[in-house]
Specification:
This protein is α/β, with parallel strands linked by helices. It folds into two domains: about 130 residues, ATPase, nucleotide binding domain (Nucleotidyltransferase, domain 5); about 170 residues, ATPase, nucleotide binding domain (Nucleotidyltransferase, domain 5), CATH 3.30.420. The chain is about 45% helix and about 20% strand. It is built from ten helices and ten strands. The longest helix is centred in the C-terminal third of the chain and has 27 residues. The protein starts with a strand and ends in a 17-residue tail after the last helix.
Length: about 325
């Protein structure tokens, strides 16, 4: 079955065609990074407008790249939550109109379920159950994936998500948006032991907290400025990246070990090489299988929505033309 997936939850407009939840026939993405970089982060109003401009040509490209037409599409899957509300509405409104015009069924997909499904597109043999650490700009969730449409949140960020913390610390260091790749690039030149950063405390076993780390980095920069001292930017970037990836990898492997399940990472931050290396090495030491998406599937994309949509469709999930978008929604 061919599913057309539509994704517009933040600043990527994407459409993709996926067969049977596992095979990508096309995955077209229009990014807005260059424009939002001018403002140091995503401007919701601009993002919404660009989605409206991009969504028709991106969908046409996805169909053309796959060599199919709407007659070949079995159903349309769309991200309806969570995300920037204006951006989500652009995708949901388009998908509803497309389904009405083409006589197709509409499948609502939760954005985090899409990130989990990116693992199926990279690893054809992977099946639930497993533990997935979904890490992105807006979300850091430890999820027990019991089935293709069965999810239990074991822990989450109690304040800043990992990607959000990367962006904020990058801004503190004078680095451009998006901050994650810039921090990693600078960290490669630094000594992570030069600065000592705190170990944030959380009450939940698999919860994480990054606000304190962000504030510690800001204090180091501000204190140096007041004293007329130079901040060793590469060392601070390295210390911050090491601390965040240590926390995330420890939590993931602890959860996988406790439940006796494979460990996975997904989401935009999962492309971080240091995070993948630490998770992989720790999993290997414990004899735990470890999986991560292909780099091109870590960020927001229509293919992951189409894949998740396939399994939602198989489970009987459908939406009417009254489908709404939601800025926040539990998985």
């Amino acid at each position: 079955m061919l599913i057309l997936g539509i994704e517009s939850s933040c600043d990527e407009t994407s459409a993709a065609v996926v067969r049977d939840g596992r095979e990508i026939l096309s995955n077209a993405v229009a990014t807005q990074i260059a424009e939002h970089r001018l403002y140091g982060g995503v401007v919701p109003e601009i993002a919404s407008r660009r989605h409206i401009e991009n969504i028709i040509p991106v969908t046409r490209q996805a169909l053309d790249d796959a060599g199919v037409g709407m007659d070949d599409i079995g159903a349309v899957a769309v991200t309806y939550a969570p995300g920037l509300i204006g951006a989500l509405l652009a995708g949901v409104s388009f998908a509803k109109g497309l389904c009405y015009a083409a006589g197709k069924e509409l499948i609502p997909v939760h954005h985090l379920r899409g990130h989990v499904a990116s693992l199926y597109l990279t690893h054809p043999g992977l099946e639930p159950p497993f533990i997935a650490l979904a890490v992105s700009g807006g979300h850091t969730h430890m999820i027990k994936v019991s089935g293709y449409t069965s999810f239990e949140v074991l822990g989450r960020a109690v304040d800043d998500a990992a990607g959000e913390a990367f962006d904020k610390v990058a801004r503190t260091l004078g680095l451009p948006y998006p901050g994650g790749p810039e921090i990693s690039k600078l960290a490669a030149e630094g000594d992570p032991s030069f600065y000592r950063l705190p170990d944030p405390h959380t009450s939940g076993e698999f919860d994480v907290s990054f606000s304190g780390l962000k504030t510690a980095c800001l204090n180091i920069v501000n204190t140096a400025a007041m004293k007329g001292e130079e901040v060793r930017r590469a060392d601070l970037a390295a210390a911050f990246e090491q601390k965040v990836t240590d926390i995330l990898s420890r939590r993931l492997i602890a959860a996988a070990e406790e439940y006796g399940l494979p460990a996975c990472v997904c989401g935009g931050v999962s492309v971080n090489g240091e995070l993948q290396r630490k998770c992989s090495a720790a999993a290997e030491r414990k004899g735990i299988p470890f999986y991560a998406p292909a780099p091109k599937l870590c960020g927001d994309n229509g293919a992951m929505i189409a894949s998740a949509g396939y399994y939602e469709y198989a489970a009987g999930s459908r939406a009417g033309l009254d489908l709404n978008a939601y800025a926040t929604l539990e998985i």
